[in-house]
Amino acid sequence: MLADIVSFKASDGLVLYGALYEPQAKKGSALLYVSGLGGSFYGSTAEALAKASVKEGIALFSMQHRGSYIIESFGYATGSKELIAGSAMERFEDSEKDIRGAIMFLESRGYRHIILVGKSTGCQKAVYYLSRNRDSRVRGLVLLSPVDDRNFDLRNYRSKTVFAARVALAKRIARKNPNALMPPGKMSYDQRIISASRFLSTSDKSRPEGNIFDYKSGKLVEFSKIKAPVLAIFGSADEYMVIKPIEAIRVLMRDSSSQFSYLMVNGAGHSLFRNNRFPSGKIIRWALATLGRSPGSRR
User: Which of 68, 83, 102, 271 is the most buried (most CB within 10 A)?
Assistant: First the structure.
């Protein structure tokens, strides 16, 4: 499916890119897709969503962010400096600047009603943004496979003692150089190349990212601040979940401060694809209802 590759600026002036899929008849609504750890603005999820959304007059903008790829050099609009980031070195809190810039870009193109869609770690970024910004342009939030990063890391080490030692090591390294890479250890595939500071972003209890979907430790504070309607989608066989997906849904439902809906894709893993099919149709129907439209509507 054809898309325009466009550039936009994060709110701090960082130059980023994205794929913009537009319907022939624009209706002022768009999905803003935030990919997961190391992800790109192109890929099967964005493509599947775009095919369904464009048919209903809803654009889709799949945005690059400073957590895209593993290690990447990004430039600023002024051309005066560069930022070394990517999933191995990004500062999670800066994702707020990327999402704000993407929303401003969409508004400049005439899209004033936005459904924010996060995938995997993109869910944490979307929740972080909305917990800190009462943005009336964002009419709804879709969470695709929102996993518990901190407890996944803990499970990966199989020992609280070993995990605590690894966190302590990361803190010692980060005090000298936050971007220094962690030495080899029993890391997950997505953390095979990662800086000490980025490792601490999910594993250190004092950092916001690892707490956003900590399904085991009390209230989800950031998530509970969101007032826009939420749709959460899990695969019943998600390989990254540390508790059963239905239990995570119960926690989200408990802590939601808005209209909450959920969908379980039976047999699907973290990608949410099952038999090469993605639940894009159900997502778009939910988006249409949230935007106050019906399928095939000319409004």
Answer: 102
